[in-house]
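U., I forgot to send this yesterday:
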Amino acid sequence: MSEDPLEAIILQTINGAIATIPGYMEEIKQNKETLKVENAQEFVYGIVMGMALGMSGAILSAQEKPPTNEDQMRVRDIIYKHIPEIRERIFNQ
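Result:
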């Protein structure tokens, strides 16, 4: 676990998003005709990245002062550092 509180919260967010992968994959499989998704794995990757970036941005915005560009870049860098793990969890199911 990271000693950085922000990174720890972001990791919790990423892990929560990763936990949704099987459910999304099943949902897409069951509703393929309605959703018209050509590549379920890439679609779910987009969902998970959106969740991680969106929730982390919301957490930053809830702080006492507005996030700086540096804060936003730091969040992005923390999330991007975990892209290989996210992709592995999606594409190696």
